[in-house]
Write a structure and sequence with these properties.
By secondary structure, this protein is α/β, with parallel strands linked by helices. It has 2 domains: about 240 residues, Aldolase class I (TIM Barrel); about 90 residues, no CATH class. The strands form 2 sheets. An 8-stranded parallel β-sheet has the order 1-9-8-6-5-4-3-2. Strands 7-11-10 form a 3-stranded antiparallel β-sheet, with no helix packed on it. Helix 1 packs parallel to helix 2 and helix 2 packs parallel to helix 3. It starts with about 20 loop residues before the first strand and ends with a helix. Flavin mononucleotide binds next to strand 9 and helix 8.
């Protein structure tokens, strides 16, 4: 345990400093769009737009121009979030595993984003892609200190710089794709925040010697959870599930209601078509997948660099299933969620969450 006075740490991500040390996690497809990110940024946190699959929800998309429209919508969404929170800190979450990852990062920079958050693979080339935008803070998501070491070494050697923060996301509780390869690692205590956060903080302090904030993610809900992370040495927290069904959340009302009605026993971990585990709700679609009789909709965009459905016609088109979830289709959708989903019992307002955790809003 670190010596901790109970005072909130200052979360500094490069040149950007939100009022509160809380990042709302990027949630795709379009669960965290500009409305949610704008509301969080306005309340004093870091509001994050998930860049994945945005074209599908845009009137500009005509079925053939997926990659072009993605770029346009990323820029439009940042402008909208900034309109809601002109003084706020806005991030884009871009997943390394996407075919058009580099375009997402570039479009976010062109659109005036403050922070790029990047996981689902190691963002080893991120400094090169963002080289013309030195004010944009770069924050990789990792599950282990080993991954952080690899990123640090590569960035320092090739680009002469280090990340502006590390998000440690634990596979034990987080929603969405989990940063481990084998199913048994999802319950392995070596991947707990209690283990990895202090280890990564110690490595950064003692071996790297540069003040890089560590941000804890996965299974965090209230003030007590957040304070526990600060005592472990984290300078910030990232939360997803609690924000997914907020009033300002960008998903459909049906999506939010499905999360609100979910029980603890409805949460399962499946092997995603991307090849790694993912934590989801056990909906009819997931039950069919587990039983080996799911029927996939066609691959519509070749959106992932590794996809079992596109390559071998195994599993299902995850982009399509996530879009169906965003629209609130209980039968066909894939609903990502953290272990905390049973605590989502109503639509909260973003401001309420900040008041509950920090006592007041910005
Ligand atoms: C519906 C949903 C979608 C998500 N989509 C993404 C994503 O597109 N990219 C990503 O890096 N993380 C994604 N995540 C993970 C969140 O950003 C966040 O780190 C995680 O949910 C934290 O755990 P918590 O839900 O227990 O708070 C998603 C999580 C949820 C619940």
């Amino acid at each position: 345990m670190k010596d901790f006075s109970g005072k909130l740490p200052k979360l500094k991500l490069g040149k950007h400093e939100p009022r509160f040390p809380l990042i709302q996690g990027g949630m795709g497809v379009r669960i965290s769009g500009p409305r949610l990110a704008g509301a969080v940024a306005k309340a004093g946190g870091v509001g994050t737009i998930a860049s994945v699959g945005l074209a599908v929800c845009s009137p500009l998309y005509d079925g053939t121009n997926y990659f072009e429209v993605n770029k346009t919508v990323i820029r439009e969404d940042i402008a909208e979030a900034k309109r809601i929170a002109p003084e706020g800190v806005v991030a884009v979450n871009a997943m390394v595993a996407l075919t058009d990852y580099e375009d997402h990062v570039r479009s976010a920079c062109e659109g005036g984003v403050d922070v790029i958050i990047s996981g689902a693979g190691l963002p080893l080339k991120l400094p090169e892609i963002t080289a013309d935008y030195p004010d944009v803070a770069l924050v990789p998501i990792v599950s282990t200190t080993k991954a952080a070491r690899i990123i640090n070494r590569r960035w320092e050697k090739q680009f002469g710089r280090l990340p502006d923060g590390f998000i440690v996301e634990t596979p034990l509780e987080a929603g969405g794709h989990l940063g481990v390869t084998r199913p048994e690692q999802v319950t392995d205590k070596d991947f707990s925040l209690e283990h990895v956060v202090p280890e990564l903080v110690a490595y950064l302090e003692k071996e790297v010697g540069v003040d890089i904030p560590v941000i804890a993610a996965g299974g965090l809900w209230d003030r007590q959870d957040v304070m526990r992370m600060f005592r472990l040495g984290a300078k910030g927290v990232q939360m997803g599930t609690r924000f997914a069904a907020t009033v300002e959340g960008d998903a459909s009302q049906e999506f939010k209601d499905i999360l609100i009605n979910a029980k603890e026993e409805d949460v399962v971990v499946i092997k995603s078509p991307v090849g790694i585990p993912g934590r989801v709700l056990k909906t009819p679609f997931v039950e069919k997948y587990i039983a080996g009789r799911v029927k996939s909709k066609p691959c519509f965009a070749n959106c992932l660099s590794h996809c079992a459905y596109r390559n071998e016609r195994k599993a299902f088109c995850i982009a399509q299933a996530l879009v169906d979830a965003f629209r609130g289709d209980y039968e066909e959708g894939l609903f990502f969620c953290g272990t905390n989903v049973s605590r989502v019992t109503r639509m909260e307002k973003v401001e309420e969450i900040f008041k509950d955790i920090f006592g007041f809003v910005a």
